[in-house]
Amino acid sequence: MFAVIIGIADYSGYSADLKYADDDARLFRTYLLKAMPNETSRGKVTLLLNGQATRQAVLTALSSHFRQASASDFILFYFSGHGSPGRFIPHDHSQNFISHKEIKDLFLLSKARYKICIADACFSGSILNGESSQGSFNNMMQINDANIAVIMSSKPSQTSSEQSSLKQGLFSYFLIKGLLGGGDLNRDSYVTVGELFKYTLAKTKQQSGGSQVPVILGNNLDRIPLARIKRN
Known about the structure:
Order of helices and strands: EHHEHEEEEHEHEEEHEHEE
Helix content: 25-40%
Radius of gyration: 16 Å
Strand content: 15-25%
Number of domains: 1
Strand order of the largest sheet: 2-1-3-7-8-12
Structural class: alpha/beta
Largest sheet: 6 strands, mixed
Number of helices: 7
CATH topology: Rossmann fold
């Protein structure tokens, strides 16, 4: 597993900071390491928070990590922070952004067998639209029979909420609960990407009253393992 995990709550010179995006990223890293201990110990997992997560730092980390992955490895990008249609917003937002196309291109270049992109950001579902996006992901799926999963926290036109009662982003809260075992829908002690999405979708949609609906694009989703659950 070669993973880059981003959480930006404190934006440089910006009044509309978030409350929990950095906490979301810390928690996701913690539980990813627990969910996939062997895979993460043999690979590399990098966490960039707030001021560390500049445009250049994020793209450099993604390029470096994804290049190291072989045809039997996982790559994963998790982003929690501000988003706008077609882009993720880094810490140094005043002059920079990270386009969805740039992320797609980095995924496309990797030889990894499993490719997973997860974002908790407003309008994140727009990654499934836009210029040549569907074609890009279709091409990605054909490389080395790669298994692809792109899980976004909301539809292209929707915002993604944080909830003070949970002290997390709504989507990330249920995503992590799913990794911890809630997503083991068939009770076989494994959580696949397909199961994780079904769990997170149902819970996020219910909790938001339908105002936030996660979306997914993927290939062989129920064949991509993300967690092994130990049961007493």
